[in-house]
Amino acid sequence: MSVKQTIIIPTVELEWSEWFLWNDLMKDARKDGIKIPNGISGVYEARYQDQEERLTIGKASDLRMRIRQGMLKGKVDHSAGEKIRDNEDTSRIVVRWAITDRPSCVEEELHKIHLSRFGRLSKYVEHT
Length: 128
Hints:
With 128 residues, this protein is α+β, with helices and mostly antiparallel strands. The chain has one domain (20-118): GIY-YIG endonuclease (3-Layer(aba) Sandwich). It contains 4 helices and 4 strands. Strands 1-4-2-3 form a 4-stranded antiparallel beta sheet, sandwiched between helices. The longest helix has 16 residues, at 103-118. The chain is globular. The mean pLDDT is 95.
């Protein structure tokens, strides 16, 4: 016997940060660098300044740790960040983020939107 269950997922409204240059985000926030929310969950995207297609779309339980320490600096594991650092011109890449308490759901939707718009997932996203 199967049991049906309906799950209603409410709308999530994102307030995106502005796009910041990768190299500017590398600077220490304590020394006039850009502050990425610390200890806060959310989603983030990276792309070339002059392109709409994303290089990666990701989620984070801690945006600062995932973006700065993982993707940008490689101090914690981040497979897309490693590939971007190895294969792309990071001086032309911009990054933005949005805070959400539902990063997994939002990441999945952002992947679907990218897939429908560009016909594929972001370059450094392997699955959703």
